Amino acid sequence: MNTEQFKGRSFLKLLDYTPDEIAALIAFAAELKEKKKAGVPHRLCEGKNVALIFEKNSTRTRCSFEVAAADLGIHPVYLDPNSSQLGKKESIADTARVLGRMFDGIEYRGFGQARVEELAKYAGVPVWNGLTNEFHPTQILGDFLTVREHFGSLKGKKLVFLGDARYNMGNSLMVGSAKMGLDFVACAPEAYFPDPELVKTCKAVAAETGAKIAFETDPLKAVEGADVLYTDVWVSMGEPAEAWKQRIGDLLPYQVNAKLMEAAGPQAKFMHCLPSFHDLGTEIGRDIHAKYGLDAMEVTDEVFESPASIVFDEAENRMHTIKAVMAATL
């Protein structure tokens, strides 16, 4: 693929990219995935160095960036919260200008979107958003590659997000759907709907692409005819443990279970950005079980382990799409 249009650009949110550009990155990821599966070397960025700044830890994001970097011939340097003075002893702007002199690209995973935007403003090299409170664009590329693999296309597919749609996943799936012509439904109590200003922006994009943006409080109504039922954990990293009680009370009716999957229809697939509290295999899961008597939270184990679940295809595709973003922008 000709990646000239992407060279030197940051990847901070999908709103910054056109539908054609997003489609091109997904297609490039599919091409790179084929090469990896076939054992064909693709060291397209030999000798490059990238910094991976993680203010929030992650299994999938870190491994995706490091494996993708290695495949491309890139040397990654991982900076955890204890390895960087970002915003503490050194301002974001100063850190960006220092790292930009040493590295060819910078990944950031952490808190407010303003932090990654400021990094990109001053770094002088491509900056990639590995997750902020507001957006998670690399996840959406991986999600949409997965949808394309299972359904053949994106346009016109119905994706229902169930749960807390106010933060990065609800926001980013809505933006991505608007850009790529999907029928997006946020299904939650009204207090958990996305920010009205972002909704307004997405509806304006949808008017150009043919996408549909809708909101529903009734799960059975929302999932009718859905191609994808998507959910995420109810309490995000960094939120207090006390948040669980209210979220469980508010969101338990939106748990993805066999009844909802059946209501959607036999074509429906289940997706989740992970990690997931679908059983008692985690410390948090066991703690919630002890306090509230729940064996699962946002999705039941029956659905998570069912043939309709494509969460591990999705997790793998994070790496392929992140590789495409790095290769294209470097």
Key features of this structure:
single chain; about 325 residues; alpha/beta; 9 strands; about 15% strand
Structure description:
45% of the residues lie in helices and 13% in strands. By secondary structure, the protein is of the alpha/beta class. The strands form 2 sheets. The chain has a 5-stranded parallel sheet with strand order 7-6-5-8-9. The protein has a 4-stranded parallel sheet with strand order 2-1-3-4, with helices on both faces. Strand 6 (183-187), helix 7 (196-209) and strand 7 (212-216) form a beta-alpha-beta unit. Helix 1 (19-37) packs across helix 5 and helix 5 (137-151) packs across helix 13. The longest helix has 19 residues, at 19-37. The chain is globular, with a radius of gyration of 19 Å. The mean pLDDT is 96.
Average pLDDT level = 96
Structural class label: alpha/beta
Ends apart, CA distance between termini: 14 Å
Beta-strand residue percentage:
5-15%
Q: How many strands in all? A: 9
Q: What's the gyration radius in Å? A: 19 Å
What is the H/E string? HEHEHEHEHEHEHEHEHHEHHH
Give the gist of this structure:
The protein has 330 residues and is an alpha/beta fold.
Set out the fold topology.
Layout: H1 19-37, E1 49-54, H2 59-72, E2 75-79, H3 92-102, E3 105-109, H4 113-123, E4 127-131, H5 137-151, E5 158-162, H6 168-180, E6 183-187, H7 196-209, E7 212-216, H8 219-222, E8 228-231, H9 243-251, H10 258-264, E9 269-272, H11 283-292, H12 301-304, H13 311-329
Parallel strand pairs: 1-2, 1-3, 3-4, 5-6, 5-8, 6-7, 8-9
Helix pairs in contact: 1-5, 1-13, 2-13, 3-4, 5-6, 5-13, 6-7
